[in-house]
Automatic annotation (TrEMBL):
This is Carboxypeptidase regulatory-like domain-containing protein. The chain crosses the membrane at residues 88-107. Keywords: Membrane, Transmembrane, Transmembrane helix. NCBIfam families: perm_prefix_1. It comes from Gimesia maris. It comes from the Bacteria. The keyword Transmembrane applies.
């Protein structure tokens, strides 16, 4: 394939030296033969014999080869000029097209400047500079590391309402940081929850506001060792049941919850015995958990944590008598 294109290119570059030279030589020979023949005929009509007429015509015309070379040189120069001009224009067009294609490719694949990019908040990245940060400690004040921080940020940009979830784990010193998630200069709301093993679920809700958030401070209380036990309707232990704590109401009537959209890091599964520890509540509290039995949809279960028992039995909801099958 490359050899074919190379031969085509060489032929194109040599075209004036080959095609035009052969054609011009043929045309010149015919014209000279016609001129000599006419001149010889005129001499013959004046009384010269045929041989003398041709000789005289040749002597009057001059050196045929010199005439042919001069004419071919003039013709070839003219054709070569126009051919080279054509080549130059073609090359210029190819270069211009290549440049335009390259510019188009760059413009299509180059991301817009950061100042014009939208963040998940729906506002420009340069506007979405607000961080969520804080600390989590135990009752005694010692830092709690590996605590799950689940945050949901709500914004109202010009293009419509946005709700985005963010997660983090506290560091060994109990601190956490989620960077660039809300626009301090615009209205926003934040729901944030902290959940650690063997401690109560706690959350806060920051209502509509503008400006920079103050650091959060969670002090988590030790909880009871509640265990959810999942069984089939026939009493067989069920493993692989997904569940996570959704909401609790403390003794002061304050609600603490986890938004479903941010809950993935704290979803757990029941073991082979059908047990799933959920140590985030206190005895006597009204709580809600999200549960998903194998092959089923997520559903909420409202429970009262027993005061005299460490276990609650949950079974799939019975099928409706109107269901098919």
């Amino acid at each position: 394939m490359l050899r074919h294109w190379f031969r085509t290119l060489i032929s194109y570059l040599r075209l004036p030296l080959i095609a035009h030279t052969d054609r011009e030589l043929h045309d010149l020979r015919e014209e000279i033969e016609f001129h000599l023949s006419s001149s010889a005929a005129d001499h013959h009509s004046e009384g010269m014999d045929p041989r003398q007429s041709q000789q005289t015509a040749l002597e009057q015309f001059g050196d045929v080869k010199t005439v042919v070379d001069d004419c071919c040189h003039v013709s070839l120069s003219r054709h070569l000029f126009w051919h080279r001009l054509h080549q130059l224009l073609t090359l210029g067009l190819v270069v211009a097209m290549g440049w335009l294609i390259w510019i188009y490719f760059l413009s299509e694949n180059q991301p817009p400047p950061a100042s014009t990019q939208l963040a998940a908040s729906g506002y420009l990245e340069s506007e979405t500079t607000g961080d969520i940060q804080g600390t989590v400690v135990a009752e005694e004040g010692q830092p709690l590391s590996e605590t799950h921080i689940l945050a949901v940020v709500k914004t109202w940009p010009p293009h419509g309402y946005r709700q985005n979830s963010y997660t983090a784990l506290t560091r060994p010193d109990g601190t956490f940081l989620i960077e660039n998630v809300y626009p301090p200069g615009q209205e926003y709301e934040v729901q944030i929850a902290a959940i650690a093993d063997a401690h109560l679920l706690k959350s806060e809700y920051v209502s509509m506001r503008t400006g920079t958030l103050d650091p959060f401070h969670f002090q988590l209380t030790r909880s009871a060792g509640l265990v959810l036990h999942f069984e089939s309707n026939a009493g067989t232990p069920l493993s692989g049941v997904n569940a996570f704590p959704f909401e609790r109401v403390d003794q002061n009537g304050q609600e603490h919850c986890i938004y479903f959209c941010s809950a993935q890091p704290v979803v757990r599964q029941s073991n082979l015995e059908g047990n799933l520890p959920m140590p985030h509540f206190l005895p006597g509290e009204q709580v809600t958990v999200y549960v998903q039995f194998p092959g089923g949809e997520w559903q909420t279960r409202e429970l009262t944590v027993p005061a005299d028992s460490q276990s609650l039995i949950l079974t799939p909801e019975p099928a409706s008598p109107f269901d098919d099958g």
